[in-house]
Amino acid sequence: MIDGRSNELPDFQVFQTVIKYCLIIIIVPIFCFFSVKSFIFDGLLNLHPMNSSVYSAVVAVIVLHVTLGLYIYKAYNESEKSPKPVKKD
Amino acid sequence: MAENPIYGPFFGVMGAASAIIFSALGAAYGTAKSGTGIAAMSVMRPELIMKSIIPVVMAGIIAIYGLVVAVLIAGSLESPSNNYTLYKGFIHLGAGLAVGFSGLAAGFAIGIVGDAGVRGTAQQPRLFVGMILILIFAEVLGLYGLIVAIYLYTKQ
Fold it and tell me: Which superkingdom heads the taxonomic lineage of this protein's source (chain A) (predicted)?
């Protein structure tokens, strides 16, 4: 729909948003896993290595779902707030 | 420990491998199947790309479940002389198979639902909420496998 282009975001902006959120979804949970494991569970709390792995895996999965929820929220709002083209006559 | 059999770690290694192999199989099917739906839909409605990437992201998360369990299992593999009992090997195999096959099933569900949901959303935007809900229920199947795998893994 070529004439529908007025109510959508520019291509580059959509690309930027999608890439940003995809990188967040991939990188942040992995970063959380290792940082939480080494700094908090192994460093501060001195847990057994197996327990610290399990707890940091749980933390990573929770963080993963939070970032996924952020993306869904963003995608849901993106098209809701895009203004409909006003008919002028 | 002399009584630990030499083939004990074989089961643990197979558990780690099957966790990531089957999860990646499901995630790949989910990505490919919903990807064809996105490609067919985007021809007419390119402004919906951002909404319709969601099944692909959810299929990717299935692979992350398998990755987590595979890393956990691989982290606790030892040689048989280092007190790696056959029981630990079985536990690790069970954990890997649990998350692997749950991920396979969840990936298939996400692929089929994502394909039909994305095509339907292009024609009726109010389907989006329903598609997200169904995708979340499909995703949770993989999460159940992850929970069982982690619970098994902590048995020693």
Answer: Eukaryota
